[in-house]
């Protein structure tokens, strides 16, 4: 399980996910990236999930979602619809084959800016104990447009095992909304909101064992976008793989970047960098880059391993 918290406002979108992977009989690890960043023909979306943290072979659903949307230059709504259908047809059967009692479904949460207005998507696939059937709910929440004279309160959504205490005691919500509003009014930087979300994750992790102290916070607004890794409420200096799966207009951005400079080249540059200095990447090898770009897979792939 996990914690996912999404926030939208008229000017910005945010998403928090913890990084814990847990399974019966195994020591939990906090290195997952339960995230997908999406750029489409009509906007952007930050997508997180709760439920299955890794497939039977240890692959993360965020990477699987990236492959599902690869080669599909769709709108935000269409993209979430494709993910929902693929999860229903592929992910749920995979969960059933794993025969685990700890995962009985999967939830996808997405915050989005679509044509300049905020939206939230919620896909819930759940099997109740002693039942063989899954319920399936795909919901799209849309803020009225044009906005009223007094803009609506930013929309907040939480999911996962960590959402239970948040739903029971909602005193955390008003300070978060005030912080987002302060960012929209350019009274604070994005780091203030990101750290505030990380603090929410930290508080939940202290009382919910399936939520880890490490988390990722991502955001997007007309002032720019980005993401940051946290350990508690401090920047995580040893997060492991810092790259977030990302699809931009149907292109797998991580695969594209790997074609320009391979992971091995980037790692070598990091190891050789002097303390406090940015790493120096090797000169461009145009022939090698063209060969790697030509070998990129551009078609969708819904298979799960």
Question: Can you describe this structure?
Answer:
This protein has a single domain, classed as Aminohydrolase, N-terminal nucleophile (Ntn) domain (Glutamine Phosphoribosylpyrophosphate, subunit 1, domain 1, 4-Layer Sandwich). The strands form 2 sheets. Strands 7-6-5-4-3-12-13 form a 7-stranded mixed sheet. Strands 8-1-2-9-10-11 form a 6-stranded antiparallel sheet. It is 30% helix and 27% strand. It is built from 8 helices and 13 strands. The protein has helices spanning 61-69, 76-98, 163-168, 173-184, 190-205, 253-260, 263-272, 286-294, and strands at residues 4-8, 12-18, 35-39, 43-50, 105-114, 117-126, 135-142, 155-159, 214-221, 224-231, 234-235, 246-248, 251-252. The model has no long low-confidence stretch (mean pLDDT 88). It is globular and about 55 Å long. The two termini are 20 Å apart. It has 305 residues and is α+β, with helices and mostly antiparallel strands.
Kindly report the oligomeric state of this protein: single chain
* CATH third-tier fold name: Glutamine Phosphoribosylpyrophosphate, subunit 1, domain 1
Integer-rounded radius of gyration:
19 Å
Shape: globular
CATH architecture classification: 4-Layer Sandwich
Low-confidence stretches are none
How many separate domains make up the residues?
1
How many individual helices? 8
């Amino acid at each position: 399980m996990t914690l996912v918290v999404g926030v939208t406002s008229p000017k910005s979108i945010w998403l928090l996910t913890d990084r814990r992977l847990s399974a019966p009989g195994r020591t939990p690890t906090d290195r997952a990236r339960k995230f997908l960043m999406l750029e489409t023909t009509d906007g952007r979306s930050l997508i997180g999930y709760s439920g299955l943290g890794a497939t039977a072979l240890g692959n993360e659903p965020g990477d699987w979602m990236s492959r599902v949307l690869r080669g599909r230059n769709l709108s935000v709504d269409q993209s979430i619809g494709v993910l929902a259908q693929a999860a229903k047809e592929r992910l749920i059967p995979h969960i059933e084959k794993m025969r685990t009692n700890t995962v009985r479904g999967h939830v996808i949460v997405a915050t989005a800016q679509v044509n300049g207005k905020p939206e939230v998507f919620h896909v819930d696939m759940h099997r109740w104990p002693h039942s063989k059937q899954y319920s399936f709910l795909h919901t799209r929440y849309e803020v009225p447009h044009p906005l009223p004279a007094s803009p609506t309160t930013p929309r907040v959504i939480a999911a996962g095992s960590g959402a239970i205490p948040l739903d029971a005691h909602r005193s955390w919500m008003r300070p978060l909304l005030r912080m987002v509003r302060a960012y929209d009014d350019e009274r604070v930087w994005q780091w203030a909101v990101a750290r505030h979300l990380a603090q929410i994750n930290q508080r939940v992790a202290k009382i919910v064992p399936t939520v880890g102290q490490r988390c990722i916070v991502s955001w997007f607004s007309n002032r720019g976008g980005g993401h940051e890794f946290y350990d508690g409420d401090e920047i995580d200096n040893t997060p492991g793989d810092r790259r977030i799966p990302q699809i931009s207009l149907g292109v797998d951005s991580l695969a594209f970047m790997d074609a320009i400079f391979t992971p091995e080249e980037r790692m070598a540059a990091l190891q050789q960098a002097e303390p406090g200095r940015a790493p120096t990447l090797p000169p461009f090898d145009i022939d090698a880059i063209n060969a790697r770009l030509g070998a990129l897979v551009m078609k969708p792939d819904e298979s799960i391993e």
